[in-house]
Amino acid sequence: MYDKPLPIIDPESAPYWAALRERRLILKRCRDCGRYHFYPRALCPHCHSDALEWSDARGTGSIYSYTVARRPAGPAFKDATPYVVAVVDLDEGARMMTNLLIDDVESVRIGQRVNVVFDAVTDDVTLPRFKPAA
Fold first, then answer.
1. Among 127, 77, 57, 58, residue whose Cα is nearest residue 97
2. Contact 62, 89 (CB under 8 A)
3. What backbone phi and psi angles, to 5 degrees, belong to 103?
4. At residue 92, what are phi and psi to the nearest 5 degrees?
5. Measured distance CA(102)–CA(81) in Å, rounded
6. Are 20 and 126 contacting, i.e. CB atoms less than 8 angstroms apart?
7. What is the average pLDDT value for the chain, to the nearest integer?
């Protein structure tokens, strides 16, 4: 049983969560400026256009920043410590905060290449996490 907080799936983000259940990572892309962004929202954060579309992402990127959590962010995370919270620069240009799955938390480095993995934590929610690229 998954005992950590779950995301709230609203109408704006529902396609994103549905794609994750299918083991696909999708991002919003602006048809006016051509840029991708994350998190799902109604307006492009770059040019403020509402001409957005969902687009498949490769699920690859590099670590922009990270922290090693040695103290749990609440009781539900106690058994997971230490764990890595990372900001990943996706190859499409969007930045995503995520969890990095890695055995040796001391080996994480800025710029390290990563790939998405899909973690089905409930029947309705699959989380995108990342692992170091092989």
1. 127
2. yes
3. -75, -45
4. -75, -15
5. 12
6. yes
7. 96
| Distance in Å from the first CA to the final CA of the chain | 30
Which of 105, 92, 106, 113 has its CA nearest to residue 28?
A: 92
Supply 113's token pair.
């290449």
Q: Could you give the CA distance from residue 77 to residue 27 in angstroms, rounded to a whole number? A: 28
Report pLDDT for 1.
82
Measured at the CA of 88, the angle between CA 85 and CA 90, to 5 degrees, comes to 155
Length of the chain: 134
Query: How confident is the model over 5-22, as pLDDT tens digits?
Result: 999 999 999 999 999 999
Phi, psi (5° rounding) for residue 117? -130, 150
- Residues 20-44 have pLDDT tens digits of 999 999 999 999 999 999 999 999 9
Element (H, E) at 17: helix 14-21
Model pLDDT, residue 118: 98
Rounded distance, CA 97 to CA 66, Å? Answer: 9
Q: Round to whole Å and give the CA distance between 119 and 21.
A: 9
